[in-house]
Structure formats: C-alpha cells, structure tokens
Design brief:
This protein is α/β, with parallel strands linked by helices. It contains five helices and 17 strands.
C-alpha cells in the first residue's frame, strides 16, 4: 500500500496508514514574501545544478517520434561520475541500509496489473474535461486526451493512487493524473491532481507545485518499461518511494509532502545511485539492465510510499521470478549523489 501527498509517521513497515498529525502542510503554506517561480526558470537552474549535458552522443529515451524529455534533461543525465553527497551514509542509514529493494511492478497483483500503467494516444484522441479537487490550484486544467478505458493503476476498482498516464507520442505531450476516476462512461473524469508535460522541454513545474507525483515530477519518465529492458538498455533515471520524507526538495523536484524536518530524511528529488562496485554477476540479463541503469542514472525520490519501492509499468510478459532478484539489492548498496541544494521553502 502506497502513501501519497499526506504522509504519516505512523507507517508500519510501509504497509499501513493510520491518522496522525504529521501530514503535509496546508496548501498556500509558503514562507512570507516568497511565491512560486516560473517553471522554465527553475528548469534552467536544475540544468546548471546537474551539469546535465554529458556529451556522450546519446539521443536519450524515445516514445514513438518523441523524446522522453531532451537528452540533457535531469532524468536522462549520466550521474555515474558525480560526487557522493556529504550526508550520504546518514541518509542511507535512515532509509534502511538493510532493507531490500522492492520491485513495485510486474505481471498481476491482487487481480490487477502490477505497476503504473500508461496508454499511448493519437493526436486526434478526443479530449475530455477533468475536475480537480483538492489540488486544482496546482493542476493543469486540460482537457486531457483520455480514452474511456484508459488503464488505471490498481485497476478500475483500485483504492490506492489510481494514477492514469496518457502519452501523445506524436504531439509529444505527457498527461498524468493522480486519484483519477472516470465519470459517465469516461466522457468526463475527476481527479485529485494532474499535470501536463511537454516532452521536448526541460521546463519544470512552478516551484511549490505538485504534479500527479508528490515531488512535482513526471511519473512516466521514471518507470521501468519492459521494452527498454528487452532492448538491453535503460537511458534514464528511475522512480523510487519512501515511507517518510522530509519537508524539503531538490530540483528538479518542485514540491515536498511532509512536515518532518529531520535532516537525515530524504527530500523529494533526492537522487540515489547504485554503487559502481556492486557486482552484477549472477543476476539474470534483464535484471542486469535495470541495475546498470541504477549505476549510471540512479533513481529519484518521487513520492511517499513503501520503502525502497522501485516503480515500473505492468506487463503480462514480465517474469515475476526474475524481478524478485532485485530483492537481493539492499539500501547499503546505494549512495546519495550531490545534485544541488536542499530547499526547505517555496
């Protein structure tokens, strides 16, 4: 069971929620005199902070005729040579050095496709209105090109995050919803929040804004997708969740979802990297592809959820037995990378 915008310190083993007093501050709880900055400006800041262009000649990940963000985007940045964060070991100890990496995707779980699904839509896919509550003030109003049967995380009757993702791979737009519900057969939808991303742009969400993910990041960019694994290479960072995060963020994240201020807790946007010394021998070929991506591109802390839960898209052709090999990797096998200042105010 995964957490979301409201984070409770009373998570038990990342599996149960109970009401508490440690949830996200109310919307509009910004420091006096500060207001959200333009997302494009923040994107340029993030690019400078991450020294994103590595000049390795790769075009970056693609979906159809579109890039999944530019090659110099933070998601597509090779971080294998970047410095280890000064607080890396304290972060890892707090997150669980002995906790196993958990593949939060696969074939089927509890009768529904296991993972965060997505649908590829044509540019002429009819767009439908989406009513947002309670995060309408930080959501892109749409309309959104959602088929009536767009796949929902957890299935039509899912009670969790219910993410819905639509990718226009010709118009190069990414549409993402959080806690999405089709109404009247899908002619309109309701959701708690939503975001639209231009896949050809490095522009971020405005500072202080969430997205369909708590961190304000795109979800699709960080999923393990089977097609990439079959190709033998994942050219982007991945997405990971933790049960308790800090009231802080690091670009390219633009939002926090906690009231906890402990400096050893991970801020949204923190980037972890599998150590280069970690031996991949003994893992199956598909799992080696995933682990190499974690060594080269790492993973972003993107949401509140199970500890060390690695995100991916469901596919009936995954081998759940192979994916279980990821559990042989533990928190102690990772390190935190220095990618820029930790921001505690919007």
């Amino acid at each position: 069971m995964k957490g979301r915008r409201v984070q409770w310190s009373c998570w038990l083993a990342g599996a149960a929620l109970a009401l508490g007093a440690c949830g996200e501050p109310p919307r509009g709880d910004r420091a006096d005199g500060l207001s959200p900055r333009d997302g494009a400006t923040a994107g340029r800041d993030a690019a400078r902070l991450l020294d994103a262009s590595r000049g390795d000649g790769r075009a970056g990940p693609q979906q159809g005729s579109c890039p999944i963000f530019p090659a110099d985007n933070a998601w597509n940045t090779d971080i294998s040579a970047m410095a280890v964060h000064a607080n890396s070991q304290r972060f890892i100890n707090r997150l669980g050095a002995n906790t196993a990496l958990h593949p939060d995707f696969g074939t089927v779980y509890r009768g529904a496709p296991n993972g965060i699904p997505y649908v590829i839509v044509a540019p002429n896919q009819p767009k439908v209105p989406v009513a947002f509550d309670p995060y309408g003030d930080e959501s892109d109003p749409g309309p959104y090109p959602l088929p009536p049967d767009a796949p929902i995380e957890g299935g039509p009757n899912g009670t969790g995050d219910r993410h819905v993702i639509a990718v226009d791979s010709i118009g190069c737009k990414l549409y993402e919803l959080y806690r999405a519900f089709p109404r009247q057969g899908g002619v309109r939808w309701e959701a708690e929040g939503g975001a639209i991303f231009d896949l050809r742009s490095n522009a971020l969400r405005p500072i202080g804004w969430t997205s369909a993910d708590a961190a304000g990041l795109p979800i699709f960019a960080g999923l393990v997708r089977r097609g990439e694994v079959l190709r033998g290479r994942i050219d982007h960072a991945l997405r990971v969740t933790f049960a308790v995060t800090r009231r802080a963020f690091v670009l390219p994240a633009t939002h926090y979802a906690s009231s906890a201020t402990d400096a050893d807790l991970p801020p949204m946007g923190l980037r972890l990297r599998l150590k280069a010394s970690y031996d991949l021998a003994g893992f199956s070929t598909p799992i080696q592809v995933i682990l190499r991506a974690l060594q080269r591109y790492g993973m972003f802390v993107a949401d509140n959820g199970g500890d060390w839960f690695l995100s991916g898209a469901p596919d009936p052709q995954w081998s759940d037995d192979e994916l279980a090999e990821l559990r042989r990797v533990h928190g102690r096998d990772f390190e935190v990378v220095e990618t820029g200042p930790i921001r505690t105010r919007y």
